[in-house]
Amino acid sequence: AQSVAQPEDQVNVAEGNPLTVKCTYSVSGNPYLFWYVQYPNRGLQFLLKYITGDNLVKGSYGFEAEFNKSQTSFHLKKPSALVSDSALYFCAVRASSLNQAGTALIFGKGTTLSVSS
Amino acid sequence: DTEVTQTPKHLVMGMTNKKSLKCEQHMGHRAMYWYKQKAKKPPELMFVYSYEKLSINESVPSRFSPECPNSSLLNLHLHALQPEDSALYLCASSQDHDSSYNEQFFGPGTRLTVL
C-alpha cells in the first residue's frame, strides 16, 4: 500500500532563512513524488515532481526538493523564505509500477508553513 | 490556457435542495477528478473520470452524482446532502489517469455549506 508521512504539522521560519518541509513515503516499486501548495481558500497549486533522474528537482517560486531513495524521503526546500511562502504544503505519491497504474494520488496530511517578517 | 475553472465559488444549500457544481478545463486533459477537502486536511478523492468514463468511485454516497458531458466538462450533482458534507469541493485534471507521473491541475474549489 502507498502512504505518505509529513511528520510536522507546522514549520516556523524567519524571512530570509532557509526552510525545509519534510516528507517520507512508502510505495511498492519506484515512486512518483509531488509537492503541492495551498493558499487560504484556494485550490492546490503544483510546485514540482520527481519522476526519475537527478535527485534534486527544481520547481516553481524557487522551491526545490531532494529525492533520497535510501531514506525514502522527498523533502521540500527553499534557500531563503519569503512571508508570501506562508501556506499549507502537501506531499503526494503515486506508484510507477504497471500493476498499480491508475491508482489514486496519495496525499500527506499537510504541513503549515509560517514565515515571519 | 492552463486553468481549471469551477463554478460557483460559494454555495449554500438546504438538505432538500438539488444543486450542481461545474468544472471546466481546456488543456486537452483526458482525466478529471472530484475531491472533497475539509479545513486543513488533505483532499479526499471522490471520483475519477478517464476518457469521459467513470474510472474510480471511492465509495461515495449516492447523494453525490458525477457527470462528464464531454472531455472538457465535469459536473457534480448534489441532492439531499447532510451538514457534514459541508466542505471545499475541488476539481482537478491531468493529461491522463493511467500515466502516474502526470501532475494534476486543481481548480480554486467550490465552498459548499449545507444547512
Topology (SSEs and partners):
The complex is a heterodimer of chains A (117) and B (115).
Chain A: E1 3-5, E2 10-14, E3 19-21, E4 24-26, E5 31-38, E6 44-50, E7 56-58, E8 64-68, E9 73-78, E10 87-95, E11 106-107, E12 111-116
Chain B: E1 4-7, E2 10-13, E3 18-25, E4 31-37, E5 44-50, E6 53-57, E7 64-70, E8 73-79, E9 87-94, E10 105-106, E11 110-114
Parallel strand pairs in B: 2-11
Antiparallel strand pairs in B: 1-3, 3-8, 4-5, 4-9, 5-6, 7-8, 9-10, 9-11
Write up what this structure looks like.
The complex is a heterodimer of chains A (117) and B (115). Chain A has 117 residues and is mainly beta. Chain A has strands at 3-5, 10-14, 19-21, 24-26, 31-38, 44-50, 56-58, 64-68, 73-78, 87-95, 106-107, 111-116. With 115 residues, chain B is mostly beta strands. Helices cover 0% and strands 56% of the residues of chain B. Chain B contains no helices and eleven strands. In chain B, the strands form two sheets. In chain B, strands 2, 4, 5, 6, 9, 10 and 11 form a seven-stranded mixed sheet that branches. Chain B has a four-stranded antiparallel sheet with strand order 1-3-8-7, with no helix packed on it. The mean pLDDT of chain B is 93. The A-B interface holds A 32, 34, 36, 41-46, 49, 51, 88, 90, 94-96, 100-105, 107-110, 112 and B 4, 6, 40-43, 45, 48, 50, 55-56, 58, 88, 90, 92, 97-101, 103-109, 111.
Describe what is shown at a glance.
Chain A has 117 residues and is mostly beta strands. Chain A is built from no helices and twelve strands.
